[in-house]
Amino acid sequence: MVNTGKYLLASDITDALKDRCDAAAFPLFTLPWEVRLADITQSFLSSLFLTHREEYRAITAWKEFLFGVQGSSVLTELALTGWKEEGPYTALVLAGADADASFLADSKSFLNGLGQPYFIFPYKDTVVLLLQGELPAALVTWLKGHEQLVTGQGVTAPDLKALPDSCRQGQQALIWGRLHQQSWCYFGALGAYALFFSQPDDQVLHVLHDRALGALLAYDEGHQSSLYETLEAYLCHDGSLKGTAAQLYTHRNTVAYRIHKAEKLIPYDLNDWEQRFTVFLACHIHRYFEILKNNH
Where does the PucR C-terminal helix-turn-helix domain start and stop, copy by copy (predicted)? Predict the structure, then answer.
């Protein structure tokens, strides 16, 4: 800030200095001589304090709404900050930014340029980004430009009450993206795993999994064998011994022996396509449980 009027005029500020400020993205202000810099500084700091306090209240309200209590008082608090019940809303969960503080600042600067209402805040080891409206293509391009960043996207929420579900989906998509080394993962593209992640509890999945694979997995654990690995590959190759052998770098006869042994340990007939599908689904559930175990 430059006080002008008594000893220094606005015309005294050279173009070279203005260019230097522009190049460094450094703001340059001029103030009449009568305005004291101390008063401006005090007013600015007071506004900054109020802004931080309001942001803290908003972050607290969002955390309660998304990950805790979803009461009417929280909705009222969010409504006061401009987040109405009508959607659509988009939830993204981000992880892997090199420096969270600088990434948050850069993100806010970019998002401000989009002119779309948003809220962004850190949560545990991730960053949660909420948007009013659909996901803009420019934001997707910008986020994908960060090499170390992994983004999980939830299904678009039709209204505010559905946003917690969308946020949880973003967290689950992020887990999948990290596991499969994908920089961007959309929950709606997870196929059967989207159904698994959407279960309020895993009891039904455990019943199906244990009935189909319980004895087989117990045999593998007790005999240090790899019947499950062979069975899963066999099902992925639609019952092809040749394809399974090629994937596992194992002789075809060895694969046939293992499958024959596995068939005695599962209560389903692999020659019946419906029963084979049930076993294949159980294998996917087993993968899902492994994902949960490795991310807790």
Answer: 227-285
pLDDT in tens, 186-205: 999 988 888 888 777 788 88
Q: Are 144 and 215 part of one and the same domain?
A: no
What is the spatial distance between Cα 112 and Cα 106, in angstroms, rounded to a whole number? 10
Given the structure tokens 């304090």, which residue do they identify?
49
How many other CB atoms are found less than 10 A from the CB of residue 165? 16
Which of left, alpha, beta for 124 (phi over 0: left; psi -120 to 50: alpha)?
left
- Is the N-terminal amide bond of 88 cis, ω within 30° of 0? yes
Domain, as residue range, for 266? 203-294
Count of beta carbons in the 10 Å neighbourhood of residue 157:
20
Q: Which of 72, 75, 53, 51 is closest to 62 using CA atoms?
A: 75
pTM to 2 decimals?
A: 0.65
Distances from the Cα of 174 to the Cαs of 79, 258, 263, in angstroms?
28, 35, 36
Residue ranges in the chain assigned as alpha helix (H): 15-23, 37-67, 72-80, 100-114, 137-144, 163-179, 192-198, 203-223, 227-236, 241-248, 252-263, 273-294
CA distance 80 to 91: 20
d(CA 58, CA 71): 15
Give the count of beta carbons closer than 10 Å to the beta carbon of residue 278.
16
What's the residue count for the chain? 296
The predicted-structure confidence for 55-102, as pLDDT tens digits, reads as follows: 777 777 788 888 875 555 677 767 767 788 888 999 999 988 654 668
Same domain, 177 and 262: no
Claim to verify: residue 89 and residue 183 sit in the same structural domain: yes
Distance CA 61, CA 104 (A): 19
